[in-house]
Design goal:
Pathway: Cell wall biogenesis; peptidoglycan biosynthesis. This protein has 15 helices and 24 strands. With about 500 residues, the chain is of the alpha/beta class. The chain binds ligand UAG, adenosine-5'-triphosphate, 2,6-diaminopimelic acid and magnesium ion (MG).
């Protein structure tokens, strides 16, 4: 494969400003990281947040780059150069060509939204497998190719990693993929070169305002997944949109392909009726374009009704019958770190959950409230180097719905852990004015916080440990140490029993 092959295959999809040198040179590797350049590489220079890849062109050439794609003017001497209007976009498009355009040969399900992406993709995978499809998974918890489970670095990986994963999925005999498409990925064109068959919109609430400057900009990034549908080579595409979310109708209006709306109110195409929630799961009747059928899921909480509806839309679009969906839904017992129960023989309920936004925390607490038999004890924190605006809001939500709140650290990263907690406390104290009966503690060390909650718990209480879910680490400074809420809770319960 030569630079010319790659560029000409992608020509219609990216704007080329200038071409220099003989493009008929063979390419063995495509990379945007000068540190990964080996002789015969095509180096794509991308402007980043921290550094500008164009500054590494000289190093890439020194290390044997056989061609360069750049956005800004650069001197590559006799080495061929293609200058493009947008090198981030070019990276995805060239990458997809380099890996054989895998997304065109897979049924691609893309799920975006602030919350519910991971859960919805797990459900989509199970439902598509229920109709005999071989489904890969790309998302926050892991990337899965058949039996192979690759730890995830990002919810949606960088363009080249993504295209490489899709190509490996095809090679492994998979024919579909359920993937989370984060707003970062859409804003940074990590998914350029991917074409989707179905796109799901779960919801939009505040998060990531450290990266997107406003909610509108955040929404516009998410919207890209939908406005691209119907512009490419795939036909029969569809959007599946949560119409109960205030942004649902805007997403619907932006689509040029058929849309199935879903929800619990109004007249969406896919509607949950007669919803019954319990600690053992969720039951409802799904009224859909294919018929009405009962859904009996082990997933807990009203938010999971929405995740189920989104996945049902995807499965029906892929040709599943109501009976196949009904059966496959029962195969998903839990999603790692999402309302995951920890049981070590204690007489109170312990739940580990990935709620790290205000909306997720409110929904988790609402679910707990509906199901609780006694007190709710909430242990939570907010991540460092991330959206600061959500901190007081999460603090307020925790106090509004809990009986005991223990504020603690959640990946402080390079921020001062106590400074983060002080920002959360603004909301905590405000809500405590209104709910004076709530018991509140600040325990910065997460292990101590969990152990304290375990010691405080009484028979019948529900203890929620929110924010980290499946994560098995705590990031302090730039160091990642092993830390797993589920393990720590189990140890604390055992310790309490041994001391009794
Ligand atoms: C804001 C953001 O997402 N940044 C990502 C982005 O960084 P960047 O483009 O700014 O890259 P940079 O480090 O400035 O480098 C610019 C270019 O120079 C190149 N370079 C750099 C150094 C060098 O010596 N040589 C060289 O060629 C780099 O390879 C790159 O092409 O590209 C990097 C490489 O792909 C990512 O690692 C990095 O993710 C950062 C670490 C990150 O934490 N991202 C998180 C917030 C994220 O993406 N999260 C979302 C959403 C999560 C969710 O809600 O589920 C996700 O999808 O995971
Ligand atoms: N549909 C939903 N609406 C609101 N909150 C939800 C929904 N589904 C799940 N949640 C809450 O959000 C948390 C994260 O859910 P999930 O991992 O499925 O979302 P996500 O969008 O993948 O999140 P992330 O962007 O962090 O990867 C859950 O633990 C739960 O508390
Ligand atoms: N994907 C999210 C995860 C946040 C999880 C929470 N534990 C934190 O570290 O803030 C983010 O990077 O913002
Ligand atoms: Mg996720």
């Amino acid at each position: 494969m030569t630079v010319e092959d790659l560029v000409s295959a992608a020509r219609g999809q990216m704007e080329i400003l200038e071409q220099r040198g003989d493009l008929r040179v063979p390419i063995g590797v495509v990379t945007d990281d000068s540190r990964a350049v080996v002789p015969g590489s095509l180096f794509v220079a991308v402007k980043g947040e921290r550094v500008d890849g164009h500054e590494f062109v000289a190093k890439a050439l020194h290390d044997g780059a056989a061609g360069v794609i750049a956005q800004s003017p650069v001197d590559t001497g006799i080495i061929p150069l293609v200058r493009v209007a947008d090198s981030r976009k070019a990276l995805g498009i060239i990458g997809s060509r380099f890996y054989g355009d895998p997304s065109s040969r897979l049924t691609m399900v893309g799920v975006t939204g602030t919350n519910g992406k991971t859960t919805t993709t797990y459900l989509c995978k199970a439902l598509l497998e229920g109709i005999g499809r071989q489904v890969g998974l790309i998302g926050t918890v892991a990337y899965q190719i058949g039996e192979e489970v690759i730890p995830a670095s990002h919810t949606t990986p960088g363009a080249l990693t993504l295209q490489g994963l899709l190509a490996r999925m095809l090679k492994a005999g998979l024919n579909a993929v359920a993937m989370e498409v984060s707003s970062h990925a859409l804003a940074l064109d990590r998914t350029a070169g991917c074409e989707y068959d179905v796109a799901v919109f779960t919801n939009l609430t505040q998060d990531h305002l450290d990266f997107h400057s406003t909610m509108e900009e955040y929404f516009q990034s998410k919207l890209k997944l939908f406005t691209e549908l119907g512009r490419g080579r795939k036909s029969g595409q569809r959007a599946v949109v949560n119409m109960d979310d205030p942004r649902g109708s805007q997403v619907r209006a932006a689509c040029r392909v058929p849309v199935w709306g879903y929800g619990m109110t109004g007249t969406p195409e896919i509607k949950a009726e007669q919803v019954k929630l319990s600690l053992n799961g969720t039951n409802f009747m799904a009224a859909t374009p294919a018929g009405t059928f009962p859904v009996d899921s082990r997933l807990v909480g009203e938010h999971n009704v929405y995740n189920l509806l989104g996945a049902i839309g995807v499965a029906l679009h892929a040709g599943a019958t109501c009976e196949q969906v009904r059966e496959a839904v029962t195969q998903v017992n839990n999603v790692p770190g999402r309302f995951e129960r920890v049981s070590a023989g204690q007489d109170f309920t312990v739940v580990v959950d990935y709620a790290h936004t205000e909306d997720a925390l409110r929904r988790l607490l609402a679910a707990a409230h509906e199901l609780k038999t006694h007190r709710i004890i909430t242990v939570f924190g907010c991540g460092g180097d991330r959206d600061r605006g959500k901190r007081p809001k999460m603090g307020r939500a925790a106090v509004e719905y809990s009986d005991v709140v223990i504020l603690t650290s959640d990946n402080p990263r390079t921020e001062d852990p106590l400074a983060i907690l002080r920002e959360v406390e603004v909301g905590v104290h405000e809500a405590l004015q209104r709910r004076k009966d709530v018991e509140y503690h600040l325990i910065a060390d997460r292990r101590d916080a969990i152990a304290t909650a375990v010691r405080m718990a009484r028979s019948g209480d529900m203890m929620l440990i929110a924010g980290k879910g499946h994560e098995d680490y705590q990031i302090i400074g730039t160091t990642k140490i092993h830390f797993d809420d589920r393990e720590v809770a189990r140890e604390a319960i055992r310790h309490l029993r041994d001391c009794a």
